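TICKET #2291
ISSUE: user wants both folds in one file
ATTACHMENT 1:
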Amino acid sequence: MVVGSAARGTWVRGDRDLDLFLLFPPGMDRDSLEREGLALARKIALEFGDGYREKYAEHPYINATVDGIDVDLVPCYRVDSASGIKSAVDRTPFHTRYITARIGGLVDDVLLLKRMAQAGGVYGSDQMTEGFAGYLCELLVLHYGSFRAVLEGASGWRPGTVIDLEGHAAKRFEEPLVVVDPVDPNRNVSASVSLSRMMEFVELARAYLEEPSTAFFELRPRPPVGRGEFSARLAARGTALFALRFPTPNLIEDIVVPQLRKSLDGLVSLLGRHEFAVNRADAEMGPDHCLLLFELLVDTLPPIARHQGPPLWNRENAERFREKYALPGAAVGGPFIEDGRYVVEVPRRYCRAGDLLASDAILQVSLGKHVRRALRDRELLTGPDCWSEEFAPFLGAFLDRASPVVRLRRG
């Protein structure tokens, strides 16, 4: 069964991918499904394509290139209803049937919405984008009735917006935008949409309604930044830039990217605890390497740090704190009382952010499992040396960060 936008007639020109699902009887056990499904997928890939790659999501599938088209060959169960799914991919054929039966004369509206989302940088439910999937765009058009009506509705969105086409939500969802899956009342189709992407879409909707233009549908590739320009712009910013580059784990993006984001958050917290103020941080997964990037407002601190203790009315803890830091060599200054609390000045462990990021302290924070392993083979880069041709588009976007409408008007 062909699924996705190609099957529903909402395929956007320029897309070069196709999803082919191989449906097997639901009575087949999981091991047999994987064994026989992958064997059939490999046979198809070898007969029609130029080889194949085995990938892993909830279970393995085969990716191949056939006549320039990127084809995913995915084994799944042919269940009778979405309530009987045995794996997440079993739900996809029901999405195709639902949309195909209802999309009617709204295909052009869907294509307009998808292209606007693509041009605005908010299209894609992948972990790196955290944006709007094609299926979500289709459901929004079905719910509101037209492309323009989607924008009118979205212009008033706020966190907690709920859309339930079938009125059958089986639980309360916590994400900022909730679009209940019409074939599965326990699933939020927009769960991947971050609050930032949601509000960027709101900005696009408002700007288009105020001043419609074909510019909202023009794709603009991310321009890479050259080494010289990168160095000059860093100097003009006057901030301190650090990057951790390490080999990309041999796993799909849906597994690696969440671990990158978790690791980025853990390291930003580590820098903050050591009083290195982070202005911005971001992560990128490349085919060969990953990059964790940190822009600091300050990267060098004095050799003493201020440490605040408990209030004196918390007698037991306060006295324990005082006795600990009153010992010879325990503090540079204090303990003294300030605003009812004990305060001490202690030697700072890391006076330079680079020393902290080069230390094994970064392996002690909350990191993704596979990222932690890969970070053991890391390289610490600083300032202009953070540039590489591999990450030039990512670094250019980092420096040029702006909202979709600001980017549109600058362009």
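ATTACHMENT 2:
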Amino acid sequence: MKKLKPSMRENRRYLLISGQGSIEKIFEQSVLNFLGELGYAQATPILIKRLKDSIIISVKREHVNQVRAAVCLSKGLMVKNASGTLKGLMKKIN
């Protein structure tokens, strides 16, 4: 299988989201309520890593602001940091 050209790849950003309780469920519901099913599908949020009181989510670059707005409107969740690379985000955590 051939590799994709860099211009054809998806540009993704990583968000560190903190909160209490079942963060994944709260995150999914808040994004679905704010963006709807079509917006959720276009943003394609993917759970990358679960930490103690936070999660790392991968989102398409074009939809970062919309996902951040959805998280800010939810109760109990907060976007602590955003980064273009997972390595850069992990440096900021430690």
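RESOLUTION: both attachments delivered.
EXTRA DETAIL ON ATTACHMENT 2: The CA atoms of residues 31 and 37 lie 9 Å apart.
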